[in-house]
């Protein structure tokens, strides 16, 4: 597993060239401190979207998935968190404003996860 804070964009592109699917997690987590690695600055949603856009611009749009973690109740909207709908309500509109097309978003949100989840299936 690569942690993005340890990679520069060229290394991320080199990693994508191997054919892997690059998964951008933790959308909705808007803090800079990452307790699992003191030397790592957590990117915010805007930084994640910029990295996604860069991979798309380098023709690796079919190597991307995105997600968020809703693992504690304080992440639910009821408890003032970003909630399960954060990507749909907030991230996708920002992606569109940043020049990512609806077709590219469909690739990230539907086609690539479908391909990934059916690898090895008959």
Low-confidence stretches: none
What composes the largest sheet? 2 strands, parallel
E-strand count: 2
Q: Termini separation (Å)? A: 28 Å
Enumerate how many helices there are, as a single number.
4
State the helicity in percent bands: 40-55%
Structural class: mainly alpha
Query: Rounded to an integer, what's the Rg over CA atoms?
Result: 15 Å
- Content of β-strand: under 5%
Oligomer: single chain
Q: What global shape is seen?
A: globular
What is the topological layout?
Layout: H1 9-17, E1 22-24, H2 45-57, E2 64-66, H3 86-97, H4 102-117
Parallel strand pairs: 1-2
Structure commentary:
With 122 residues, the protein is mostly helical. The longest helix is centred in the C-terminal third of the chain and has 16 residues. The model has no long low-confidence stretch (mean pLDDT 86). It contains four helices and two strands. It is globular. Helices cover 41% and strands 5% of the residues. It has a two-stranded parallel ribbon with strand order 1-2.
């Amino acid at each position: 597993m690569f942690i993005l804070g340890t990679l520069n964009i060229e290394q991320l592109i080199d990693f994508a060239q191997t054919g892997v699917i690059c998964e951008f997690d933790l959308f909705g987590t808007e803090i800079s401190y990452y307790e699992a690695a003191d030397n790592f600055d957590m990117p915010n949603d805007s930084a994640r979207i910029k990295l996604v856009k860069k991979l798309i611009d380098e023709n690796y749009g079919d190597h991307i998935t995105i997600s968020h973690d809703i693992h504690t109740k304080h992440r639910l909207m009821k408890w003032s968190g970003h909630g399960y709908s954060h990507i749909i309500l907030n991230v996708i509109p920002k992606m569109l404003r940043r020049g990512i097309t609806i077709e590219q978003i469909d690739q990230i949100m539907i086609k690539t996860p479908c391909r990934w989840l059916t690898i090895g299936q008959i």
